[in-house]
Amino acid sequence: MAGATRTWIGYIAMCVGMFMAILDIQVVASSLTTIEFALHIPTDRLSWIQTAYLMAEIIAIPLTAVLTRALSLRWLFAGATAGFTLASLVCAFSPSADFLIAVRVVQGFCGGMLIPAVFTSVFTLLPHENEILGTTIAGVFAMVAPTIGPGVGGWLTETFSWHWIFLINVVPGLIVSVVVATCIRAGKPDYRVLRQIDYGTVVLASVFLASLELLLKEAPLRHWSGEFVWVLLAICPLAGALAVYSCLSRRHPFIDLRRYRNRPFAVGCALSFVLGVGLYGATYLLAIFLGLVRYHSALEIGGVMMVMGVAQLLAAPFAALAEKRIDARILIAIGYGLFAAGLIANGFENIHTDFGGLFWPQVLRGLSVMLCLLPATRLALDGWPQAQIPDASAQFNLMRNLGGAIGIALIDTILDQRTPGHVTALIARLQAGDPRAAKLVGLPVKLFHNQAMGPVDEATKQTIAPMIKRAALVQSFNEAWLAIGILFALALLALPLLRAAPGQSEIGRRT
Q1: What would the DSSP string read from start to end of 348-398?
Q2: What is the dihedral angle through the alpha carbons of 36, 42, 43, 46, rounded to the nearest 10 degrees?
Q3: Are 267 and 260 in contact (CB under 8 A)?
Q4: Are 108 and 57 in contact (CB under 8 A)?
Q5: What pLDDT digit, counting tens, does each position of 277-291 carry?
Q6: Closest C-alpha to 313, from 159, 98, 144
Q7: How many angstroms separate the CA atoms of 25 and 150, rounded?
Q8: How many angstroms separate the CA atoms of 212 and 234, rounded?
Q9: Whether 425 contacts 151, CB under 8 Å
Q10: What is the pLDDT of residues 342-379, one digit of tens each?
């Protein structure tokens, strides 16, 4: 086999591995409520299935560059794909929620290395004249995954079982591992580089992220009191402070926090964080709304959720053209403005809202994703020396995952804390004979005349209690949508901090 052909086969296999990692979040999202019922997972713990994966990616992404030098691109990618595949297999046979969440950490850690490794390979495997083609191929794989992910996940769950959203990774994963190990030849392992890894900071960062996530999820439920909360309040800031100190005091830090002295990079990372809150938060909110409120099957959920992915895919070429010709600040304003509009539009749902009411908000968000991502990436990475681009890019991208993990935790807090209050308020309004409350709950409006209702028998109470809880949950969903929408609107305040950027980056001109 000719060397060039072998390299391209290996590169395509790497793109397939990246595709699997990106697909995983979307495939799982459409089946969350199915997994909830199958494993008897409390609703307030359901989000751990996604956040465990995201947090592990946060740790893996900045380690990818040094592990590539230590193991070589060939063995890093083959090993990470094998780990991702094995973890997928174990996820499929998880007997409990805790077991599934633990294995999702392993899956996320391995999957987190696949995406940056592919884009690194463009510049290390392919000839210079083929770099644009290689980037385009990787971009297509990256764009198609979130487009078809919800539908694929829903179809697998509906046709077979939820286990197949993980089992689908096994055969392709094994093939990718073998092909990459066979075809990729770039670089040789240098195990001495492993000494450069700041293992202590990796542990501190992991402890900080885990304790922060637990604090955001558990403390509100425990009213910020109790021994468990006090322990978290002690561990979280201490681990975070020590991790920051270690990063600032080492020559080769786990994450180079000194980069945040660069204003465009700092603002770009902040925008990336906000985008993560919106991307992963909206996916999570929409999936559980359709499952818990509309009682849809996984396949129906996947069908509804594909709208945003299709809109994103269709808009991508136009966003790429605009990114080269229009001031990045203008594109960011349009992108974040449209995303905010899509989120806020979702903030007026009711118990009957379905595909039609969810269609245009998803279209708005889908059209805006690349307008949020591309110009912010250019502003954040423009001007860095070529040798620092991979690490700066990894740091920029991990902020998006961090935003997703924290955003989902805050969404859970809103749903858990606000719903009981809405239940109490709805009951009071129904007892007062409020017809608008009756409409929200789904009761016959003609029976309510703004007059105090008489005693209600126990059978009626049991009948309408789930209806009231469902309506209260919708109100909490609306507050979560609006909170994220407001965050996106506030992100626009960062634009005056950015200077105008040229249509082509300095990096591009130097290369």
Answers
A1: G--TT--HHHHHHHHHHHHHHHHHHHHHHHHHHHTT--GGGHHHHHHHHHH
A2: -60
A3: no
A4: yes
A5: 999 999 999 999 999
A6: 144
A7: 9
A8: 11
A9: no
A10: 999 999 999 999 999 999 999 999 999 999 998 998 88
The structure tokens 């094998």 sit at 82
**Which of 314, 294, 316 lies closest to 304, judged by CA?**
294
Selection from 214, 266, 212 nearest residue 240 by Cα: 212
Decide if pLDDT at 507 tops 80: no
Structure tokens at 80: 């990470």
Backbone angles phi, psi at 505, to 5 degrees: -65, 155
* Nearest partner of 488 among 271, 330, 267, judged by Cα: 271
Residue 108 three-state SS:
helix
In the block, which residue shows the tokens 């359901």?
46
Helix (H, G, I), strand (E, B) or coil at 224: coil
Query: What type of residue sits at position 374?
Result: L
User: Does residue 108 contact residue 60 with C-beta atoms inside 8 Å?
Assistant: yes
Q: Which residue has the tokens 């009951």?
A: 427
Distances (CA, A) of 61 to 1, 114, 202: 33, 9, 12
Structure tokens given for 387: 């040798």
Q: What share of the chain is helix, strand, coil (3-state, %, to 5)?
A: 85, 0, 15
